[in-house]
Amino acid sequence: MAWYDDNSDGKTHEVGQKLPNILGIYDMSGNVWESCSDCWYNYTETPETNPYYSSGSYRVDRGGSWYNFATYARVADRSIRPPTASNYALGFRIART
């Protein structure tokens, strides 16, 4: 289901080459960290749904990437970065309601 350090051959891969998740969505974990629109916030408790924070100095990335260990390749894994940061293992997904 995911590209990570042991199976990625040290590079990103085209979407859809692994199996989809239980919702039928491809590449939600691994391959590249997914840049999210919400701002970083330290959770004080385990929320029932993912809270959205619209103000703050840092952004949230989720899902791990091809250079991380397999344990990072999950949508619940979060990373923090400045909003202007970019790198070779960061991407985004266009979504609509």
What would your notes on this structure say?
The protein is mostly beta strands and 97 residues long. It is built from no helices and four strands. The protein has strands at residues 33-39, 59-62, 78-81, 90-91. A four-stranded mixed β-sheet has the order 3-2-1-4, with no helix packed on it. The chain is globular. The protein starts with 32 loop residues before the first strand and ends in a 6-residue tail after the last strand. The model has no long low-confidence stretch (mean pLDDT 87).
Note the gap between the termini.
25 Å
**Rg value:** 14 Å
- Listing every helix as H and every strand as E from the N terminus to the C terminus, the arrangement reads EEEE
Spatial ordering of strands, largest sheet: 3-2-1-4
| Total beta-strand segments | 4
Could you tell me the mean pLDDT? Answer: 87
Strand content: 15-25%
Largest sheet: 4 strands, mixed
Please work out how many helical segments DSSP would assign: 0
The general outline is globular
Name the poorly predicted regions.
Answer: none
Q: Please estimate the helix content.
A: under 10%
Structural class call reads mainly beta
Q: How are the SSEs placed, and which strands pair?
A:
Elements: E1 33-39, E2 59-62, E3 78-81, E4 90-91
Parallel strand pairs: 1-4
Antiparallel strand pairs: 1-2, 2-3
